[in-house]
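Running low. Any example?
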Amino acid sequence: MMKILIVNTSESTGGAAVAANRLMEALRNNGVEVTMMVCEKKSNHSSVVVAGSRVGNFLRFCYERFVIWLCNLLSRRNLFAVSIANTGIAITQTPEFREADIIHLHWINHGMLSLRGIRKILDSGKPVVWTMHDMWPATAICHLTMECRHFTTKCRRCQYLSPYGFGKNLTMSVWQRKQSMFENHSVQFVACSEWMADEARQSSLLKNQSVVTIPNPIDTRFFCRKDRTLARQELGLPTDGRLILFVAQRATNKNKGVSYLIEALKKLTESHPDTKNNTAIAILGGHSDELAAQLPLPTYSLGYVSEPKKIVEIYNAADVFVLPSLSDNLPNTIMESMACGVPCVGFDVGGIPEMIDHRQNGYVAKFRNSDDLAEGIRWVLAEADHDELSRQAVEKVHQNYSEASVSRRYIEIYQKALQK
């Protein structure tokens, strides 16, 4: 039996952690022995081990952020937009690493692995699979490239760092170290969406590496349709009227497009005043209460929720899920919403149009277009056959993102890696 070591910074915080956990369970259900190594563990799961110490991990995290803070001339702006991997844990010394047949990297920033640590992993000779949850493996230091295309040739002056500090030299230094690392080693990269795979293949860092596409898995037995009225009663939400849902780990995150959602809802209520009387919005995520005063509809702030059963209830309470992200890979929230039979509305960006089939299980709005976003919300709520949208959404998830289908594809990747 092959042994897989999954490496991710956190066990449960963030989309990458959720995806890594689901993959671990899916693989275990298919007879694969899997251990997950993290910096931050919250469960009692025996298959999840902590690397490093709590104090040491915190100090590594702070040191990396401190250097970025200095690069930006003591400004907190973009403090978490980049990672320089200047410090990390030496996981090659652990028994879990030595016993593993394959090392499967996921999101390993914020002090989990340094560039030196990654090189040691590659130098060990063990096959390495790296699932890309953002663009960091294919760039020098940034997680989201937005409109920048420097990664296709050579990262130099980074848009996230001050041009007056030593950020330029730092960016080029990290790029050169990554380039040297990848030139001499073979890594099997996995992108969660075709969009990210296409972007990764354009990176000059990964020009000699293999990049394939495998989506994140979801447990369709857990995330499934339930009675909407009962779900609202459980959550204390009104059982009559229509409910729009917006979800983000931090609801005020600009990259999740909340400003476009606010603008779209204002336009929707202006053109259809009756919307104010029959429609409300629920917001799931930290700082959600900060948005209530800016929205033209009755707003229910649900705060940050970590209990999976309650999250399923929240999805099932909604009539439509809206995620106007400005850049996204393969959002777990859209997958979860669709699995619960809730039609989705999002922008035509990243992997979102691969998930939402326009006017079949939701609505794909023109990028950064609040008018079209408003039209998409209106179409789902007032014009489309909602039951058919719901059925198509569930079917799409079952066909493409089920644990069984995703785990089979990863097992094939592992077997090929072991044969090289």
Remarks:
- The first helix runs from residue 15 to 29.
- The longest strand covers residues 242-250.
